[in-house]
Amino acid sequence: MSRFYDEIREQPEVAARLLEESRTAIEAFGARFREAHPKGFVIAARGSSDHAALYAKYLFGRRHRSLVALAAPSLFTRYSSPPSLEGQCVIGISQSGESPDVIAVVEEAVRQGAMTVAITNEAESRLAATSELVLPLHAGSERSVPASKTYTASLLALALMSQAIDPDEQFGAALNRVPMSITDALEAEEKLAPLAPALAGPRAIVLGRGFNFSTAEEVALKLTETSYVLARAWSVADFEHGPIAVVGFPVLLVGGGGSVEADLESIAARLVDSGCRVIGVFDCSSAPRGLEAAAVHDSGLPEELTPLTLAVLGQLLAWRVALARGVDPDRPRALRKITRTW
Prior knowledge:
Strand 8 (251-255), helix 13 (261-273) and strand 9 (278-282) form a beta-alpha-beta unit. Helix 2 (11-21) packs parallel to helix 8 (149-165) and helix 11 (213-227) packs parallel to helix 14 (306-324). The strands form 2 sheets. The chain has a 5-stranded parallel beta sheet, with helices on both faces. A 5-stranded parallel beta sheet has the order 7-6-8-9-10, sandwiched between helices. 46% of the residues lie in helices and 15% in strands. It is globular and about 55 Å long. It is built from 14 helices and 10 strands. The chain has 2 domains: 3-176, Rossmann fold, CATH 3.40.50; 185-324, 3-Layer(aba) Sandwich (Rossmann fold), CATH 3.40.50. The protein is α/β, with parallel strands linked by helices and 342 residues long.
């Protein structure tokens, strides 16, 4: 197969290990959060980690009614004009822990006396050394350039942090089901086969909303970097405010049911009526009507956790599209595993 595919298949084990081995770090985070009582969150990240930060924006906003800001690292590096971080919980997310601009945000947060947390796969990294608290991902070595297991581990780490802030018995039980839910998603791989042909062209649109807007962004990135499909993600709501004018490109819908299910059904009907080629990947009981093809996998997880299973299905779909286009997903051109930006 490929390293990318092999690492996609490792994700149930990674999730189980993170649930088990992060307990001490999560307890320390919960205790420090209650002590500091921050007003909100500022998250610094790049690439796939930025999509994990977008997930946190919805997760912390929905579960804790907290305001979450995604940092603009260039304010800290190129412009030397960092905003005030007083009273914030500042989180740096980096697989390698060596992204200079993410580190710069956390360093400034430390200087200003803010609570800081590193989410990283490298517990001995510079980001980890800079931060007050460290939440290692325990994902093992990730050799493939496209992130897979470190991305879903970052999502799960954020969900565990949310549970530490506001413990809920049902949410906690759902967290414990995540490894098996990912296993089930992997076993649903063949459902993706009818979707790949629609993404064989040079361009595509990926739509999601709410918790799975982050998934749409991540799947679009995976299609771009592994298959060289110029994929652009939008929130369903933003798409209807102008970008829908480009209707005609293949559209991939990503949804986990819940509060935004009707929005995906509405945009699906509108696009299908316009003669657009529409396919979808869903973690819920059913897909919108009229789609050319859909992969439906109902994990039973709450909407808040469906980005984990849908990310896995999106990774598998990207891998299939790469093979169909004759691209080696392990060696995307012009990319390296660790990207250092300022």
